[in-house]
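Example record

One chain of 216 residues, shown exactly as stored in the release files.
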Amino acid sequence: MDRREVRKKRRQDQVREEILDASRRVILAGGLSGLTLSAVARELQLTKAALYYYFPSKEALVFELIYLGLDNHSAAVECAIKETSSGAGAIEALIRAAADHYGDRKDELRLAYLVPQVGSAGATQIDAEMLAKIRPFNDRIYGAVAEKIRQDQDAGRIADEIDGRQLAFLAHTSVLGMLTVEGLAEAANDAPLLHSRQPMVDELVSTFRARLAPSD
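Predicted structure tokens for this chain:
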């Protein structure tokens, strides 16, 4: 690749990132329903035709936002898990890192987990190719916790019958469910919830750590 091609690619990558940043601003300003190619074009002072060069449809743009959001989330959780030395520590790290990451990113949470389920909202439909791209994120989170649990099992510290990956999945979805309800209350102007986030996170940690108590 010669210098001209390198500069062209660098510029294309920059514009692509600007489009994604503008899309995030549109979502923050008007919610997910306000995300349209026209709104993003106005935010960047570009034509829709220029946007189509980078994203052929709104669905393609939405999936890219979903993908990047999941990538950032799984990277943050994976990093927290790597700092632990036990299965119990890993499950706690998963819960706390997930709550911290999505706690102030509710639109990112909705975009990743709720929008693909509601086709009538103009969301993207996740196809086989898209699934192949996002499935590795499960290994980064659930697989990482399962490996820590397996190490404890091999050392005889916890019971062999515990399915580490399943437990990690349940812990993660518990956090996501809690934050989804919190976001629902906020959207209905019924916030804050009777039970605040931190005590609920602490309770989840206590519950899942108890499942990984050392075996006799």
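Notes: The chain has ten helices and no strands.
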